[in-house]
Amino acid sequence: MLEAMSLAILIGSLLVVGAVFTSLFSARFGAPILLVFLLVGLLAGEDGLGIEFSNFAGAYFIGSIALAIILFESGFETRWQTLKIALGPSLLLATLGVLVTAGLVGLGAHLLFDWSWLASLLLGTIVASTDAAAVFFLLRVGGISLRDRVRSTLEVESGSNDPMAIFLTIALVGIAGAGAARGEEQAILSLMRSLVTQIGFGGLLGLLGGVVIARIAKAVEFEPALQPIVVLAFALVLFAATNMVGGSGFLAVYCAGLVCGNTRIRHALAVRRFQRGMSWLAQIAMFLTLGLLAAPSDFPAVLLPAIALALVLMLLARPLAVWLCLLPFGFSRHETAFIAWVGLRGAVSILLAIVPLIGGVPEGRAIFNVAFVVVLVSLIVQGWTIGRVARFLGLVVPSRQGLVERIELELPGRGDHEVVAYRVHPDSAVGRGGRIPRWARPSLVLRDGRSLRFETAGRLQDGDQVYIVTATDHIRLLDHLFARPAETAGDAALFGDFGLSAQARMGELGDAYGFEVPEAVRGQTVADVIRETLDGDIEEGDRVACGPVDLIVRRVDEDRDVAEVGLALERSGPRPRLPLFQNRREIAAWLRTRRAARKARRDAAAAPPVPKRDDESTKVGDNAA
Amino acid sequence: MDLSDLLSPDAIIPSLKANSKRQALQELAEKAATLTGLDERQIFDTLLQRERLGSTGVGNGIAIPHGKLANLKRIQGLFARLPKPIDFEALDDQPIDIVFLLLAPESAGADHLKALARVARLLREPGLAGKLRASTDASALYAVLTASATSNAA
């Protein structure tokens, strides 16, 4: 008995160690780390090293807890600001998007496999959700800085769409189990009712629970090491309790995480670090378990149709769903295309694939294998190409700030001040002799193993470690002073030859550079024109064509407004244009020209054509991007 | 590509003394007036008007003031080095000691922008500012500016 236990612990922890070590290599090859965990599980499983594990209920149990922890953390890491930017599009994607994707994949499965409609749709709902863990990991660690709105939408969508997929899957399995005993109408009605309670209770209890957890974590002084434990334990209490009253526990922990993460609680830094660690552990546990559970020797039987289905999902179902959901929000074609491509499937899909097996759906085993292959294909193909696709579509924001070496230390008992330690780099603003503002006076400088007072340390030198007590809000400003120059900072191709005042008048600009500006635009400032053309979605490096020159957004301020503008004397070349994903405005324009053309044809039949006036030669403010 | 079509050997000021941005522009306008035969005041006002849109200090101690003038015959460059760097409200807040003035006729249109882009690109070349700062006499400065332009074209 004792030996068996030790053996289980030995194998389990060796697997975790193995998975973590392999992750070192995955960074080098750019392979999605989660894929590596999954592969380690597969290798150790019954067709590899021969670990027999086929306890589906146990795997589902482990996976559910792990997913709750992951979702709580992803809520915890999401800033209000991110949510504010992305709320509309991601909510639509998380609901309607999941439905459309599931429906289309279900249709594909029905055509590819000889399955009942129910089983096909079940597969559709299983692979309908975007995996939060995979998306978060690739966006945060992938080292590309994406346009803010795209990143936010993807983050919030992937964090909030699991509950919908989970709900649909469980509901479909329920119907399959109940068979045709009840009338169809009744089944649909109860489905709708349970959807409303799931989402209503889940969201409401989640927000309430989040407020309560944050209050407690703020008011009560626990032993510091226990603080993160209490928060996480409360989150799991909330998860289970919400499930018991018929709400979606997953939605609840995500919402609670959002509230807690955006409240200044005690030991916030320690809690965050603990959450991150737990979330990693949960992901490793989940992927290993699911990898162990699968039997790759069963895959060849379904391999080809499953790959075909993965292609249907990646190239048809997801893009169509994303395009439909984003239509009301004026995303550009490239943004829509990218969001469609980053629909990574992951652990949630495999976890959900267990549900039909537990529920005794006849096609259960086949569904599980197909879902597994679809996830693998998605992780490999999409996960591996994200960076390249982002660059091809021009959605990577050029960085003006280089690397910062910073360590944050928490002050006991307070949430609004921190000690930060920077290492001075010779090329940073401070290293080149820049002044440190009064509000950020360093308390201590460590140099060659000696500690010096800032006043007596003299000019900061390469390698100095500088300790500063500062308000949490000021850290971003300090980063500027201690950052190395970005490789692209002085790049005129990205930020223009000259700087312009954001308040410069268009009329005067036209006079200085010899291009005509329409009378109505002359009085407007450069920032006005940029704002109008970019329609609220302003990002550093954005270009707006203006006569023979380009206006470039050099810096945006905290309110995401134009702060500095650059002027490029040479226009940038045209970017690749996709023939897909037209947005609302483009569709409207196309319909207008169609109608005009038809009218012109009708008029031409009746009367001779009128010569067209050419008044579009100096169009100002037409967006090059 | 060669800057010698914009810059004549006598349009180099190896040591321009000024204490402020305004004074520097005034000195440059005066020299440009003798080179082109135009009114000094008119040149100065044009330059000042352009600076109002945003400083032409492009960073790294370099400024490229420019403007268009109605009765100028051809595009005219003027280079100056300042022994004492002055504040030019540049974006990186660094004082400037290298100035390239570029004046263009009102009708120059795209040629004005092309010439300006060439000057800006040339002065961004790594190492060029260092060479300019190391030279003290007009002919050496002229050689650096034109030699580097030809190597750039190759």
From TrEMBL, chain A:
Q: Where in the cell is it found?
A: Cell membrane
Kindly provide the name given to this protein in its UniProt entry.
Cell volume regulation protein A
Membrane topology, record value: Multi-pass membrane protein
Please, which domain of life does this record's source organism belong to?
A: Bacteria
Gene3D superfamilies, per the entry: 1.20.1530.20
List the PANTHER family: K(+)_H(+) ANTIPORTER NHAP2, NA(+)/H(+) ANTIPORTER 1
Its transmembrane ranges are 53-72, 92-113, 120-144, 164-183, 195-217, 229-256, 277-296, 302-326, 338-360, 366-386
One annotated GO molecular function = monoatomic cation transmembrane transporter activity
Principal localisation: membrane
UniProt-annotated stretches for the region Disordered: 598-625
The residues covered by the RCK C-terminal domain are 404-484
This protein's UniProt keywords: Antiport, Cell membrane, Ion transport, Membrane, Potassium, Potassium transport, Transmembrane, Transmembrane helix, Transport
Q: Which GO terms describe its cellular component?
A: plasma membrane
From TrEMBL, chain B:
Q: Where in the cell is it found?
A: Cytoplasm
Lineage: superkingdom: Bacteria
| Keyword presence, Cell membrane | no
SUPFAM superfamilies, A to Z:
Phoshotransferase/anion transport protein
The yes or no answer to whether the keyword Transferase is present is yes
- GO annotations of cellular component type: cytoplasm
Q: Which GO terms describe its biological process?
A: phosphoenolpyruvate-dependent sugar phosphotransferase system
Q: Which residues form the PTS EIIA type-2 domain?
A: 5-148
Instruction: Extract the GO molecular function terms from the UniProt entry.
Output: protein kinase activator activity; protein-N(PI)-phosphohistidine-sugar phosphotransferase activity
Q: Which UniProt keywords apply?
A: Transferase
Fetch the PANTHER family from UniProt.
NITROGEN REGULATORY PROTEIN, PTS SYSTEM FRUCTOSE-LIKE EIIA COMPONENT-RELATED
**NCBIfam families recorded for this chain?**
nitro_reg_IIA
Protein known as: PTS system nitrogen regulatory IIA component
Organism annotation: Prosthecomicrobium pneumaticum
